[in-house]
């Protein structure tokens, strides 16, 4: 039964996760899955591979966080521009109605 957790986690990483749109994320997921494969079979893990996978996961997290932050900033900028266009149009209509 102790291997079930590793088998499940390996399945999550190889079959279920779809957040692979960023190359660093995809590479980190693959590395982590490769580290878990021996554990899922009841074999010891390669310590160096585990450390490399941890570093890859950390880099992927940072890249994904920066990307999410940038997309939020872009969305806020687009929203601000839309409000500006609406305000300008409302002023134009009010001016014409005088």
What does this structure look like?
By secondary structure, the chain is mainly alpha-helical. The chain has one domain (2-70). It contains three helices and no strands. It is rod-shaped. 10% of the residues are buried.
Please tag this protein with its features.
mainly alpha, rod-shaped
Largest β-sheet summary: none
Please report which band the strand proportion falls in: under 5%, 5-15%, 15-25%, 25-35%, 35-45% or over 45%: under 5%
Number of strands: 0
How many discrete structural domains?
Answer: 1
Shape label:
rod-shaped
Q: List segments where confidence is low: pLDDT < 50 over at least 5 consecutive residues.
A: none
Number of helices: 3
The average pLDDT is 89
Give the terminus-to-terminus CA distance.
Answer: 79 Å
From the alpha carbons, calculate the radius of gyration and give it in angstroms.
Answer: 24 Å
Summarize the structure.
With 98 residues, the chain is mostly helical. It has helices at residues 2-16, 23-40, 47-97. The protein has one domain (2-70).
Give me the secondary-structure topology.
Elements: H1 2-16, H2 23-40, H3 47-97
Helix pairs in contact: 1-2, 2-3
